[in-house]
Amino acid sequence: MSYSCIIYPVYIVFVFVSAKWVFL
Fold first, then answer.
1. pLDDT for res 10
2. Distance (Å, rounded) from C-alpha 19 to C-alpha 4?
3. Dihedral of CA 11/13/16/22: which sign?
4. Rounded to whole angstroms, how far apart are CA atoms 7 and 12?
5. Cα–Cα distance measured from residue 10 to residue 6, given in angstroms and rounded to the nearest whole number
6. How far is the C-alpha of 4 from the C-alpha of 24, rounded, in Å?
7. Spatial separation of the C-alpha atoms in residues 13 and 20, rounded to whole Å
8. pLDDT of residue 13
9. pLDDT of residue 1
């Protein structure tokens, strides 16, 4: 469960950065 708590925020940041590059 703690593993998911670490991966989830990283996934959110990854999606946010990906979206930033797309709109860029």
1. 94
2. 22
3. negative
4. 9
5. 7
6. 30
7. 10
8. 96
9. 61
